[in-house]
Specification:
Length: about 160
């Protein structure tokens, strides 16, 4: 009876060991990134746009900072380096390149944005001046040559 219990315990221990090894072998090589977006005074910037791009594969992941300025992007493949771009209204955008991630680790990358970055585009399309609505005058400029060349009814053009 004791041999039978020992055999069952050994078999159970072997199954547990085998199950744990196979689960480790199936763990994907991925990483995560997290951090906080703040301004130059250390205040959180909610709603900042975070874009993480794998420079080798072109994989692109986006996130937005929460009310405390925090963000997180998970399940990132380890192939190649990453580029992190952060932008927010009324702040200058910032970019970090060649970020290397390690398997099963979470990298912390905090970003401080400087004020500025507002851009305005003004498009001016030139058109001919129309009729002035503030007065009814019509002005035309004529030089003396134009006056001489203009035919007038009843005027002798030859002498």
């Amino acid at each position: 009876m004791l041999k039978r219990i020992t055999l069952h315990l050994a078999l159970l221990a072997g199954l547990i060991l085998f199950a744990s090894l196979t689960s480790l072998a199936q763990t994907p090589d991925t990483a995560s990134i997290r951090g906080q977006i703040v301004d130059s005074n250390g205040a959180a910037i909610p709603g900042a746009r975070i874009v993480l791009t794998n420079e080798q594969t072109g994989l692109r992941r986006e996130a937005q900072s929460d009310s405390s300025g925090s963000y997180a992007i998970t399940s990132l493949p380890l192939t190649g380096g990453y580029k992190l771009s952060v932008s927010a209204p009324n702040f200058a955008a910032q970019e970090r390149r060649e970020l290397q991630l390690r398997a099963n680790e979470t990298a912390t990358i905090n970003v401080t944005l400087a004020p500025g970055g507002t851009t305005e585009n003004v498009t001016v399309i030139g058109t001919a001046e129309g009729v002035k609505s503030d007065n009814a005058l019509l002005n035309v400029r004529l030089d003396s040559k134009k006056i001489e060349e203009t035919p007038v009814f009843g005027r002798k053009t030859t002498y």
